[in-house]
Task: structure prediction
Amino acid sequence: MNKVRSEYRCDACGARAPKWAGQCVDCGAWNTLVEALAAPTARNPRAATWTGTLPTVQTLSGVAAAETPRISTGIGELDRVLGGGLVAGSVTLIGGDPGIGKSTLLLQAVVHCAQERPVLYVTGEESPAQVALRASRLGADAGPVQLLAETCVERVIETALAAKPAVLVVDSIQTTFTETLQSAPGAVAQLRESAAQLVRFAKQSGTAVFLVGHVTKEGTIAGPRVLEHMVDTVLYFENDLGSRYRVIRAVKNRFGAVNELGVFAMTDAGLKEVANPSAIFLSRHEQPVAGSVITVVREGSRPMLVELQALVDASPLHNPRRMALGFEQNRLVMLLAVLHRHAGVVMSDQDVFVNMVGGIRVTETSVDLAVLLAALSSYRDRPLPPDLVVFGEVGLAGEVRPVPHGEERLREAAKHGFKRALVPAANAPRKGSKIGIKVEGVARLADALSLI
Ligand code: TYD
Ligand code: MG
Result:
């Protein structure tokens, strides 16, 4: 009988060793050896693969690109981040902090799917009684959902082969283990090998598989990140537990747009989708306040209105603080340098804090102009008009550069009752196009400041 052997592999250089050691003998890195399945020993490659016929090579145009049918999860925002629904045979990794709502969301999704097709929910973290309690709290008919409390991946797959579910949820991948390796569940090697087996199962059986992964404190080690390359879709819950709202971002998607956002609210009956997220990221003030600017971001495929706030205050420190929440800190430092060099505004003795309201994280550069105007508004203590939206990228030469989908952003702002917009000149609509908002196009940062 062929005995499955394990060996140790260096995470840094890939060297193999029969025994564990603290240091890799090849590259000298410390603590990088992890257990892995031994690769089969090399045989004569020709003899091993030669079966008498060669595999056929096809031209790309000859391959029929079948449009994949989608399975709706019954949750519009989840379908949106998945790119229109679940794809049979796909593997989706859903990551996030413990307690953010991964199990809740997936339970809601499988309860909906179970009405039409068989689903299997594998729980390795909670007892079936706990899952049942949660299902009753969600107030949905969870009757047809098949439940399995199991952590051994081989047995999970065996059960799934017999039950033939259309959707399989494994909650969580960190609690599953494979019998072929000796390391503890949750170790990197266990995580990779269990996930690899589940991916193989998904592809062979056409089952849509969800893997739940907790983001660990270190973020990268033994967390969902080590699995990102193996799966088709990676979704992350990205805001913190403090907020009532939950934002899911698709960071990788083989079947849809990347950076797509889904917005939910946590209620006592589970996660409710927020179909109009523009409304929740704005904090409508009674009176205009200094340092607050409304911008339009476009994360994924829809525009969203977001409020950003800045506070500029005299600093007691030698090195004044620059803090950006929901926005890249280095970019803030760069923008303040542009403001100094091209508009002559000195903030080198001031602390600058910038925050995106509602805990959203923005990865786009279209917020540059809004960040600068918010900082300036706070510094001068002069509020901007409350019916104004601002967007545009700011370059190092002090120019205001256009952003994609300008007109769509303007329409979104008009829809929410904004009357004026300050945008890059190239994004200003041509005369005659009716959007219902008064648009000022600027080409330079200095022009924008003189207009305000
Ligand atoms: P959970 O889905 O268990 O998180 P994860 O699987 O990501 O670790 O989330 C549980 C949290 O959500 C918990 O703190 C309670 C809260 N919650 C509600 O507020 N309402 C509900 O209806 C449910 C089911 C959970
Ligand atoms: Mg959970």
Observations:
- The chain has three domains: 1-43, 70-275, 292-451.
- Residues 81 and 260 are 5 Å apart (CA to CA).
- The chain has ten helices and 23 strands.
